[in-house]
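Predict both folds.
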Amino acid sequence: MLCAAMVFFSSEAQALVSLAGTRLIFDGRFPEATIEVSNRGNAQVLIQAWLADTGSPQPAEPQLPFVVTPHLAQLPAQGKQALRVMYEGVGMPIDRESLLHLYVLEVPRRSEAPQQLTIAVRQRINVFYRPEGLSGDPAEAPQNLAWQWMPLDRSTLRVRNPTPFHVVLQHIAINDIEVSEDLMLEPFAERSLPVPDRASAHVAFGTLTFKALTDYGGQRDFCAQAQETLPFNARLRMPGAQSTIGKC
């Protein structure tokens, strides 16, 4: 019943608690990573924080070699609280990044006014655990992606991530026609993307464009001249460059 109420009244719910970032990079050179939580409201709120793997939103701290502290905290009006994510030091892959989810549940004070619905708002951000000693530069991972048309098939574009880093892409397009709105490529993963017929009609002269997210949640533009048969890489588009079909 509570879930149904949350969905029905979701348009009226406004989160008063905000996180300092849209993602958290846990650098394996250090034993912990922190992110700040702020209460923008004029009343005290209670927050609950936990880590989970990508398969379930339920708390998974007993199974994961991480702990979030404080697990529960009261934020005064206009107050702030630093959440610390700490790693035990063993239990995670050392040859690639790992993806976890950090959940923050905001529980507002119960209203004494009649016919008022109190809603608990849950937020989620990605946590990338990056072990020490990985080869390469995560900032260069998007331009190291290998793109290739499937043999004898202009309706499918394949992309392979040869790096140990996650690469998050947005607005992937061929000839300015969108192929995928967003895509996360795990380390060493490969995906096949269906391409609309009108985008692949002139593959030899096609232009691939996409945006890639940085460690800080910003966006950088990349583009490439699509090759008909050979794998190709995109390059960083310089600030101020205009998107033009057939040019990059």
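Second protein follows, with its predicted structure tokens after the sequence.
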Amino acid sequence: MTKFGTRGVSYSKRFRDTLQAGKKLRIFYGNLLKKYFKKKIKSTLKKKRPKSQNLKKIEIVFLRFFESRLDTVLYRAKFTPTVRSAQQLILHGKVYVNQQRVKNRAYNLKNGDIISLDFNCLNLYENHIITSIKWATPPKHLLINYRTLQILFLGNVESTNLSCEFPFNLRLQKILVNYSMQ
């Protein structure tokens, strides 16, 4: 162990790792366009906030936005195997929010919203629900009823430990800084 934290790690390697982490995050959230992703990062950073608010709070605001998207909630609730398949369910009109059909995959949920799935297409997601709920614990910001195929969005994303939800090393601070400078 050296006293220099970055010794042996070149600038180009750190830059490459940050770019790869950003790409993994975009792909994880349903292969979002770089332009859309960059726009959301800039809007998160531009929001007026007190000077005492540090980068950690900005990370929470950023993750809260993406974790409150309808496609992400369906994926986190284990109704679909991927975010992309959740987007397909939404686009085909099989998802309802507060008994209203929603076809916008980027629909942002509010506290207390009830998401329900169409029972006629139960065979599409029944097998995945059965295999995935054996060991998985749902996030704390979702109350899930697998019998009625409903999800109650509580909105307290901060109370959920999201670091174990990502299958890769999330370098969110570096990603936010990198995309805001481009």
